[in-house]
């Protein structure tokens, strides 16, 4: 309970909002606070480390058992994030192309200072995938090549001159309160639009196929946006064409 209140205070949330979250999500019991925005209160007790050729790589579990967060100890994309759901989408990233060559890698996500790898199925053992992933990351950074090329598309929530006051508030809240929390769990949330009171968002990284993604959207992001911005009536997830094809294939 005290830890949850400290997290609310650290995020700059007001007492009324903090009390609402604590009450609505039954945090007086054993329900972890990270279910609000999928945020773990601390690093896993058993973190994996590897130091080779002067590089130290740490891995961290995510709420998605099929996704693992690799922290190379250096900048990856700085203030940006980028997701590659297929090998074809990795045309602008030499590192992502190399990672897709590893058998069992389903998708790759780059954060400011981390890389999230999602494996193809739960049957694959991370202990078998990690050595190749470690080697690929270390060899790439030793090469001095850029993580992404200049032709890489922008996927941020930067303000635009065309944004009205409500959209600007939505983007600011996403950038300052929501995205940093989601990124700690190896994912990200990207603004895609606002229409008829509904905020359209795209989940990336470990959040894409996470079993708790609906909780992240509804119990975390939607509640926070509605509290600060009365014009927001709801939140819905937007998927790309590749995601639609994959979902249809999995349902057949």
Count, helices: 7
The gross shape turns out to be globular
- Number of β-strand runs: 9
The low-pLDDT segments are 1-52, 243-252
SSE succession: HHEEEEHEEHHEEHEH
Strand order of the largest sheet: 1-2-3-6-5-4
Q: Give the helix proportion (percent range).
A: 25-40%
Q: Strand portion, in percent?
A: 15-25%
Report the C-alpha radius of gyration, rounded: 19 Å
* Main β-sheet description: 6 strands, antiparallel
Average pLDDT number: 77
- Which structural class matches the secondary elements? alpha+beta
Distance linking N and C termini: 44 Å
Any key phrases for this structure?
globular; three-stranded mixed beta sheet; six-stranded antiparallel beta sheet; disordered N terminus; 7 helices; alpha+beta; 252 residues
SSE topology:
Elements: H1 2-10, H2 15-24, E1 48-52, E2 55-61, E3 67-71, E4 82-84, H3 94-100, E5 105-110, E6 115-119, H4 126-143, H5 165-184, E7 187-195, E8 198-205, H6 213-228, E9 234-237, H7 241-251
Parallel strand pairs: 8-9
Antiparallel strand pairs: 1-2, 2-3, 3-6, 4-5, 5-6, 7-8
Helix pairs in contact: 1-2, 3-4
